[in-house]
């Protein structure tokens, strides 16, 4: 959720509007819960693009100019009149966020980073979102009349189920993290060189690696791991630490077939069981891509990671 991770940063600089897909009937560009942020001269994240999004941005900026306080719910038929032919109907909720709400959204964003589920409740008659203790399902109660205030949105903010640790902040590691950061996953980026991670996207958890064993131990159970550091010796220590865990989901190591052969021998000499060593994927990345540029390698690895993530997310 890019929008959620960026609210604290952007709200500190002034008001903005949180636009959320509150409900959908039929075919639509995005699912209920998809959200974006709109400021006077920027946007963050997307509710699907196209003319619907342009209309939503225009509506949001009018609310900012009017210094509106109450949330709004708007109904958009996705027909020719809107320049879209999806054929469905989308309800969008608009909430103006003000600087005074910054501590609340900082806490919400922090809880999300910690993997805690939350529910946002936006009532048409209340000035701002509330956060009930109940963990109910998402839904939209429609107003009795087209523009009535008697509506309510429940938006679950579930932490990502797919967790990935990327070890290495070199050219490939940086390219890979920037490719994956906008997507729905819990992403950790680990390297001994803190200065290489200072420009990490807000949604990424950065870990300065003191020892490989410690940083691997801190990964969530059933995490995926990608190792691509600047030193083979560090790669080997990370590989050993990952393979000694029985609860990792997937482990990919950058390198050639010859590196795989050397590592298999060295890991066996360190007492790693043959069956565990076979779980190490090396080389990594989808096949058929010969380009060795860091960005090309990162795309090949990101594709492999997304294929793995699809297995982790129910349809």
From TrEMBL:
Pfam families associated with the record: XdhC_C (PF13478), XdhC_CoxI (PF02625)
Domain XdhC Rossmann: start-end pairs: 164-305
Protein name per the record: Xanthine dehydrogenase accessory protein XdhC
Domain XdhC- CoxI: 12-76
């Amino acid at each position: 959720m890019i929008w959620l991770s960026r609210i604290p940063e952007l709200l500190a600089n002034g008001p903005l509007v949180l636009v959320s897909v509150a409900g959908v009937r039929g075919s639509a560009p995005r699912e209920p819960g998809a959200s974006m942020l709109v400021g006077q001269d920027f946007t963050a994240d997307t509710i699907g693009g196209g003319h619907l999004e342009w209309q939503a941005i225009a509506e949001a900026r009018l609310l900012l100019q009017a210094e509106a306080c109450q949330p709004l719910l708007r109904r958009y038929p996705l027909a020719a009149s809107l320049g879209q032919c999806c054929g469905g109907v989308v309800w969008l909720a608009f909430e103006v966020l003000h600087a005074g709400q910054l501590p609340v959204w900082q806490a919400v964003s922090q809880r999300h980073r910690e993997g805690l589920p939350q529910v946002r409740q936006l009532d048409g008659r209340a000035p701002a979102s509330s956060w009930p203790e109940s963990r109910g399902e998402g839904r939209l109660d429609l107003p009795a009349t087209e523009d009535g205030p008697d509506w309510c949105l429940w938006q679950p903010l579930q932490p990502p189920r797919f967790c990935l640790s990327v070890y290495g902040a070199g050219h490939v590691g940086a390219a890979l993290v920037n490719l994956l950061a906008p997507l729905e996953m819990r992403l950790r980026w680990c390297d001994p060189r803190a200065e290489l991670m200072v420009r990490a996207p807000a949604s990424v958890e950065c870990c300065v690696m003191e020892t490989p064993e410690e940083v691997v131990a801190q990964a969530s159970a059933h995490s995926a791991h990608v190792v691509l550091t600047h030193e083979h010796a560090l790669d080997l220590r990370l590989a050993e630490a990952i393979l000694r865990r029985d609860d990792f989901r997937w482990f990919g190591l950058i390198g050639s077939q010859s590196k795989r052969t050397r590592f298999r021998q060295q890991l066996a000499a360190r007492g790693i069981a043959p069956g565990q060593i076979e779980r190490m994927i090396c080389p990594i990345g989808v096949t058929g891509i010969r380009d060795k540029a860091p960005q090309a390698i990162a795309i090949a690895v990101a594709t492999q990671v997304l294929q793995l993530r699809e297995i982790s997310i129910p349809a």
